[in-house]
């Protein structure tokens, strides 16, 4: 499984945002996407997820042309993302929040997948029956990651996962993300600088004013 993006151009309301972006995430690779606020990280992630239309260029995952497939097919392809904000539903329990993508996409093997996620992040299993609103911001981030892991069994995209997370929890988040690499997932992590991702990633791309360079 690999993600290959070639010469991708994306505009929002007629304004060019991404210029000729090329990026590669190899099988089982963990790759960083580093850029300042407004550089275009979220726009690129939204384009990969099919949430923004692309102007020109190519995106392939496991040989499938992602540009040709609508957003709702991503979960079935095993592609998922952790948005910058957590977007948990406060009145639902932790487990209900984690199960949302399973219900929305009628995913198979959800029981095994849930056990796998609880094994990876055991502290979440302990508060599975609590309402999301009763958790700290960092705990909510872990739950949002768990939720993304339900459909994301091939490619997981993490949009600034460490943003606004206290040091103790960001260390824990790093441990969990490192484990994902060992599980053979392709992972793309965006960050405004490489403070947290430097030790995690196998390769790095930098994005500046909508243009991406390797290294
Ligand atoms: N809905 C929109 N309408 C107009 N311009 C937008 C829209 N969304 C993003 N942009 C512009 O696209 C550029 C890239 O924004 P994007 O959110 O992708 O950056 P980012 O690297 O993720 O930054 P941040 O770290 O602040 O989230 C910015 O100049 C932004 O103003």
UniProtKB/TrEMBL annotation:
Entry keywords, A to Z: Amino-acid transport, ATP-binding, Nucleotide-binding, Transport
Protein source organism: Pseudomonas putida
A GO BP entry: L-amino acid transport
Classification lineage: Bacteria, Pseudomonadati, Pseudomonadota, Gammaproteobacteria, Pseudomonadales
Similarity section: Belongs to the ABC transporter superfamily.
Superkingdom assignment: Bacteria
InterPro entries: AAA+_ATPase (IPR003593), ABC_transporter-like_ATP-bd (IPR003439), ABC_transporter-like_CS (IPR017871), BCAA_Transport_ATP-bd_LivF (IPR052156), P-loop_NTPase (IPR027417)
Pfam families: ABC_tran
Protein name: ATP-binding cassette domain-containing protein
Residue ranges of every copy of the ABC transporter domain listed in the record: 3-215
């Amino acid at each position: 499984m690999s993600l290959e993006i070639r010469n991708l151009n994306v505009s929002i309301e007629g304004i060019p945002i991404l210029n000729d972006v090329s990026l590669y995430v190899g099988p089982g690779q963990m790759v960083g996407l580093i850029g300042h606020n407004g550089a275009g990280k979220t726009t690129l992630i939204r384009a990969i997820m099919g949430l923004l239309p692309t102007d020109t260029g190519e995106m392939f995952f496991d040989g499938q042309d992602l540009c040709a497939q609508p957003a709702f097919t991503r979960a079935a392809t095993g592609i998922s993302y952790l948005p910058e904000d957590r977007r948990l539903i406060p009145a639902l329990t932790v487990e209900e929040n984690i199960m949302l993508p399973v219900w929305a996409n009628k995913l198979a093997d959800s029981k095994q997948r849930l056990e796998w996620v609880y094994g990876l992040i055991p502290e979440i299993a302990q508060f599975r029956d609590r309402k999301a609103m009763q958790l700290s911001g960092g705990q909510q981030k872990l739950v949002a990651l768990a939720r993304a892991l339900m459909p994301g069994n091939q490619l997981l995209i993490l949009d600034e996962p460490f943003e606004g997370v206290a040091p103790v929890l960001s260390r824990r988040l790093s441990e969990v993300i490192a484990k994902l690499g060992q599980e053979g997932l392709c992972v793309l992590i965006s960050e405004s600088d490489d403070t947290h991702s430097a030790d995690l990633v196998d390769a790095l791309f930098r994005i500046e004013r909508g243009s991406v360079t390797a290294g």
